[in-house]
Amino acid sequence: MIQQHELGSKRHNCLNELTMQSRLMTDDENKNGKKSDWFRLNLTGPVKNFSGTLCQLTYITTLVIKNNNLERLPAELGNLVNLVNLDASCNRLHSLPSTIGDLTELRALILNDNKIVNLPSEIGRLLNLRHFNLNDNPLSAEVSSMYGDGSDSNIRRMIRYYMDYFYLYS
């Protein structure tokens, strides 16, 4: 399906506009080690499914998938090992895949306005995390008490807790 937007009196086809400005690499280019200039992937709108195939774009550093209808993130998310910023706010996410812990370069994780109750223990592997937003989620009492007001000290304490838990029980 091709989405169109009205700009003034002209109609623009978003897919054609994207195709003219940017080009996805072919499988052969990817297999031969060609690197893309893309560092940011922004998918907003009424997206319901985030394909694990997009997680082959391992060179991206920023992933914005906010304001969608996503209920889950694929396990392949952990393949995005260069990811520094992840904004999945304003979706319908109930949980995070355990592979979130593979995103060890992650500095910002924005998950406000979802349906998240608990966090996987692997979140304790995100030692570079500096900004973590869980506001407006129905957090469990345990997570809520650690997250508190979302201050830096609470986030560091929560990451330490999950780090201890992860390494103790894994």
Question: Can you give a write-up of this model?
Answer:
With 170 residues, this protein is of the alpha/beta class. Helices cover 22% and strands 14% of the residues. It is built from four helices and seven strands. The strands form two sheets. Strands 3-4-5-6-7 form a five-stranded parallel β-sheet, with no helix packed on it. Strands 1-2 form a two-stranded antiparallel ribbon. Strand 1 and strand 2 form a beta hairpin. It is globular and about 50 Å long. The N and C termini lie far apart (44 Å).
Which terms would index this structure?
globular; five-stranded parallel beta sheet; two-stranded antiparallel sheet; disordered N terminus; alpha/beta; 170 residues; Leucine-rich repeat, LRR (right-handed beta-alpha superhelix)
Class from helix and strand fractions: alpha/beta
Low-confidence stretches: 1-21
Radius of gyration: 18 Å
Distance from N terminus to C terminus (CA atoms, Å) equals 44 Å
Order of helices and strands: EEHHEEEEEHH
The major sheet is characterized as: 5 strands, parallel
How many distinct domains? 1
Compute the number of strand runs: 7
Q: In what range is the share of β-strand residues?
A: 5-15%
Silhouette = globular
Kindly identify the CATH topology: Leucine-rich repeat, LRR (right-handed beta-alpha superhelix)
- The CATH superfamily is Ribonuclease Inhibitor
Q: How confident overall, as mean pLDDT?
A: 83
| Strand line-up across the major sheet | 3-4-5-6-7
